[in-house]
Amino acid sequence: MSIPASPTATSDNVQLQQPTARQALISHALTGHSHSPGRSYLASASPEGRSNTPIDFDGLSFPSVGARERREDTEAQREARIQKISGAVRTILECIGEDPDREGLLKTPERYAKALMFFSKGYEESVTHLMNKALFQEDHDEMVIVKNIDVFSLCEHHMVPFTGKIHIGYIPKNGKVVGLSKIARLAEMFSRRLQVQERLTKQVALAMQELLDPLGVAVVMEASHFCMVMRGVQKPGSQTITSSMFGCFRDQAKTREEFLSLIRRNGV
């Protein structure tokens, strides 16, 4: 199903699509950004014939500002980016009272810069490329669940880790299924960004819904946030659980309960 949008001409004669109210709402839920005139949707069709949806926005699937620039870095530009982060880390070390020139810290700024680039590598990945050639037709119309997927992310408020597990389920429509490893990779892609758990959970669910157009999607995530463990209230062992459900999982209590029961089970 395509979502109509209002075309806008540009100086380069590239046709952009002004988002509909639904697109703007989904985009805000996924990115945390409200729409502005400069944030338009490229008029390109997805591999599944779904056009003008947030899944295809800028070819980068719900990117933050600067995601495209980072993805298209040359080797020299990437090295310059790492050196810029390294300089900032050196300043931080000085500000907390450390000596960045002592032996143990000499290479710390560059190490941390490279680590941060890895922690946030999801900004360089695209849903459409991730799912390339991984959608199949199968005679299956029952629930598919991949559970206990380990995820590691950085809280965008304090830039400290939160870690946990995510459980993803869907019910195919018209036999359209996705490769199981791609479900885990989807969770990995969205988690390797600055995040809040609520948005991460919804991003995964919406991406599955947009890509597969299934009868329903259910995502549950449970995680421990180091911003609550190492600082602030300092409550080790606390868990945050979030869920996002669409279609039959939201509308039918029995379907939802079956999913929740299955992800709670240990073993077969």
From TrEMBL:
Question: Span of the secretion signal?
Answer: none
Positions of region (Disordered): 1-76
Question: What pathway does the annotation place this protein in?
Answer: Cofactor biosynthesis; 7,8-dihydroneopterin triphosphate biosynthesis; 7,8-dihydroneopterin triphosphate from GTP: step 1/1
HAMAP family registered for this protein in UniProt: FolE (MF_00223)
NCBIfam families registered for this protein in UniProt: folE, PRK09347.1-2, PRK09347.1-3
Its Gene Ontology cellular component terms are:
cytoplasm
Cited Pfam families: GTP_cyclohydroI
Q: Where is the composition biased (Polar residues)?
A: 1-21
Q: Which GO BP terms, alphabetically?
A: folic acid biosynthetic process; tetrahydrobiopterin biosynthetic process; tetrahydrofolate biosynthetic process
Q: Where is the composition biased (Basic and acidic residues)?
A: 67-76
Function summary: GTP cyclohydrolase 1 is the first enzyme in the biosynthetic pathway leading to folic acid.
Protein name per its UniProtKB record: GTP cyclohydrolase 1
Question: What EC number(s) are associated with this protein in UniProt?
Answer: 3.5.4.16
Q: Which stretches make up the GTP cyclohydrolase I domain?
A: 86-264
InterPro entries registered for this protein in UniProt: GTP-CH-I_C/QueF, GTP-CH-I_N, GTP_CycHdrlase_I, GTP_CycHdrlase_I_CS, GTP_CycHdrlase_I_dom
The entry's family comment says:
Belongs to the GTP cyclohydrolase I family.
Gene it is expressed from: GCH1_1
One MF term in GO for this entry? GTP binding
